[in-house]
Specification:
It is a single chain. The protein is of the alpha+beta class. The protein has one domain: Alpha-Beta Complex (Ribosomal Protein L22, Chain A), CATH 3.90.470. The protein contains 5 helices and 3 strands. Strands 1-3-2 form a 3-stranded antiparallel β-sheet. β2 and β3 form a beta hairpin. The radius of gyration is 20 Å and the shape is flat.
Length: about 140
């Protein structure tokens, strides 16, 4: 491995250590519906995002709220001495990717059949802190 690749790999490895994320795979909700909710919390402070998700009437918001709590829990495991209120956490990014599609048949008039696609998605949520702690 050359020096450039080694340096790039080491920098990615260091960046991964300070990244706090949570993933939700094969969520049985349409990606389009999940993206509507994800767009509401992107770039928002964590406590405000939890409030937005808690009071949203959409079904996707329940799953995203649980995922956000998981990401905060991952942050707390790595930063035990720091209080959550002092850290100023915010939602850095949210990705909603398409998952597998279940293809089903629904009966239609005159002996015909309509194809139904039951979509699923994968959600990746990354949180970050405004105040960077340098404890290296």
């Amino acid at each position: 491995m050359g020096a450039r690749k080694r340096n790039t790999a080491n920098s990615k490895k260091e960046e991964k250590k300070i990244t706090y994320l949570a993933k939700l795979n094969n969520c049985p909700t349409s990606p389009r519906k999940m993206r509507l909710v994800a767009d509401q919390i992107r770039g928002v402070e964590v406590n405000r995002a939890l409030d937005i998700l808690h009071f949203s009437p959409k079904e996707a918001s329940r799953r995203l709220e649980k995922l956000l709590k998981s990401a905060v829990s991952n942050w707390q495991q790595k930063n035990e001495g720091i209080r959550l209120e002092d850290s100023q956490l915010f939602v850095k990014s949210v990705f909603v990717d398409s998952g597998k599609v279940l293809k089903r048949i629904q009966p239609a008039p005159q002996g015909r059949a309509h194809r139904i696609q039951k979509r699923s998605n994968h959600v990746t949520l990354i949180i970050d802190s405004l105040t960077k702690n340098t404890e290296a």
